[in-house]
Amino acid sequence: MILLARRAGLSSGRRSSRSRRGDDNLPTIMPVDRREFLKLATVAGAGCLAGFDAHTLARSLSRQTASAKGLWAEADAILRRIVPPTFPNRTFDITRFGARETDSTQALRRAIDACHAAGGGPVIAPKGRWVAGPIVLQSKVNLHLEDGATIAFSRDPRAYLPVVFTRREGAELMNYSPFIYAFQQSNIAITGTGTLDGQADAEHWWPWTREASDSRTRLRGVAARGVAVAERLFGDGSSLRGGTTERVAMRDVKVGEVAGAIVAVDFYYEEGDKGDFTPIVRDIDVRGVTSRKSKYAFLLRGYARSPVSNVTVTDCTFDGVEKEDVLENVRGLVLANVRVNGTLRNERISH
Known about the structure:
The protein is an alpha/beta fold. The protein has helices spanning 34-50, 54-81, 105-117, 206-211, 213-224, and strands at 92-93, 121-125, 128-132, 135-136, 141-145, 149-153, 164-168, 171-175, 180-181, 189-192, 195-197, 245-246, 253-266, 282-287, 289-301, 308-318, 326-328, 330-340, 343-349.
């Protein structure tokens, strides 16, 4: 699955638009199966007894069915545009390249280099706990975490240097490497049922959120002045931490507890849509994700001028979801065989 999830606070004074299946504001239209038809037929009969016009209801049903066909045709077109990566069957176990539980950084790099040079395939992290610095994926490499495998990322900020080209709140800069990074590569993925552990706590990474104000102000300033990206140097000495993953496809992932939403894209941070930069998020494919507990299943908030577009979520199970979806300026959210708190959802949503 292609997973984009950037955490950001909601801007003050702006109310979230919370969608509900069946709301007037949420045109969720489904093909009508025999069971639903019988239900509607029953309602129509009751309508006649109550003095309502059953012919009007039938015409409405006909229009809704025709509209549904068009929506699902559009959903199929979205899916055809998103081509899942494929990989050769050859495997590259990181233990063959010297992986040790105390530090597997170089072993992972050697395994990825060898895999890429050979034409691609899965780089296997077997059962165990493997401490590592940033992982840089190359074309045709599938980082596969077997069941019971954990890659625990270093807590030392110096491990994520030298700086790399990245983005922060829509602005390009040179900053700490994300945990997992790829640039100008294709056909890459992270798969398996293992764990990626950022090792964040009250003393590591979390405090950076409170300390980043000056660096964020400086970034907005250099971006507004058009300073060359190569000269927008942050990293060491700044408090802009790197992300979790960038430009990486992910699928078949198991998640424990998530504080926010399983699928989250929120443009409303800092000054929201009054800012100088317009983020773009589109063509997201999420497949085979299971979650035990989360606040939301989906939190997607784009701008009217830049909606979150073409998001497909397939074969996923989200349990313990506490609140309804938050959707705002979303175009083409497709749910196929998605269970939320036990309820099956097959929907095509634009909001």
